[in-house]
Amino acid sequence: MLNVLYAVEAELPHLLADEAGWNSLYIDYHPPIVERLWRPWREYRILLHRIHPCAAEEALFHPHPWPSAMRVLAGEYEMAVGYGPGETAPPVAARMIATGDFRYEMTEPDAWHYVRPIGAPTYSVMVTGIPWVRSSPTPEKPLRSLIVGERAELLHFFRQRYPRTA
Predict the structure, then answer these.
(1) 166 found inside a domain
(2) pTM for this structure?
(3) Collapsing DSSP states into helix, strand and coil, what is residue 112?
(4) In contact, 52 and 36? CB cutoff 8 Å
(5) Does 108 map to a domain?
């Protein structure tokens, strides 16, 4: 998945110019709050995130329903990882601090993690693959789209980070 992430990043300057191609979500059913822009790309999905700080005990420990690769672009977050089937959270197996230019992939259906921004929001790029047949927690609260200002701020950040050269 990291190779897919690198390919996505090479195309992001062009993709960010097409504002209408991006969908959005404000994800606030559980901390941390996430502002997301997303769009399909080939057989994958690209997700651009601003993730807001929360208390250590609040961060959602969760599996992903698809393989993924992420790159932290700005900010710092604590990440814990674990491994286990089903919807019952496994023990935390490792905890780390991701800062600067940090990249990682999650390619096993039973991998779990949480991210908790420290001190300020973090910004990241994520690419996801074809969903697995795996149960994972789903929100009961309906999610809304980003409002105009939130959407504009996210696009501005990512356009600065991935500028068009031609």
Answers:
(1) no
(2) 0.94
(3) strand
(4) no
(5) yes
